[in-house]
Design goal:
Blueprint lengths: L5 E6 L6 H8 L5 E5 L1 H9 L4 H6 L3 E4 L9 H4 L3 E9 L1 H8 L6 H11 L3 E6 L6 E4 L4 E4 L3 H10 L5 E4 L2 H11 L2
Helix pairs in contact: 5-7
């Protein structure tokens, strides 16, 4: 992949592995951050300040235009990779069904149309998920449809879907050459 190109890192409304995703993101160079509306909210809940990302040279795009205007950067060949980490079951469902309802799902759809690889760290991938909420650990029981959507997304061309931090790191290393 071209080293001059950037990585588009998208965050949705999941706190599940949010810290691990951000820790990995800030170690990378040439990263732009794309936030769904829920992603922006969840960062606040987990005490992340957007100023801290900007101070590290990370450009931030928020979901505040009806057309998802920042998506046009994919047409200009700016990005070599789109990462959606962490990805909520809602985001995974929208992507699995081809819906582009906001900035993050629009980035995913247009990445596919521009043949830019996407790496998705899906959250609801097992029948039982123990995750860190803002104040305590919680146990979640993803629905059958959530597990089905995860499996559907894994079949997409030019998309790598992972379900744990180790797989995210390995896939990122492989795709960010």
């Amino acid at each position: 992949m071209n080293d001059n190109k950037r990585i588009a890192w998208c965050i949705t409304g999941s706190g599940h592995y949010l810290k691990e995703s951000i820790d990995l993101m800030i170690k990378l160079e040439n990263v732009d951050l794309f936030l769904s509306k829920a992603g922006e909210e969840v960062l606040k809940w987990y005490n992340y300040d957007l100023k801290d990302f900007r101070s590290k040279g990370i450009k931030i795009f928020k979901d505040n235009t009806a057309s998802g205007a920042p998506v046009s950067l994919l047409y200009e060949d700016v990005y070599k990779l789109v990462i959606i980490s962490p990805a909520t079951s809602n985001t995974v469902a929208q992507m699995a069904y081809g819906l582009s309802a906001g900035l993050v799902t629009n980035m995913f759809a247009q990445a596919g149309k521009c043949e830019v690889h996407s790496l998705v760290f899906a959250c609801d991938t097992e029948p039982v998920v123990i995750t860190q909420a803002p104040k305590k650990l919680v146990t979640l029981y993803p629905r059958d449809i959530d597990l089905k959507n995860y499996k559907t997304l894994k079949k997409f061309k030019n998309v790598t879907v992972v379900d744990n931090v180790k797989a995210l790191k390995m896939s990122l290393k492989k795709l960010n050459k």
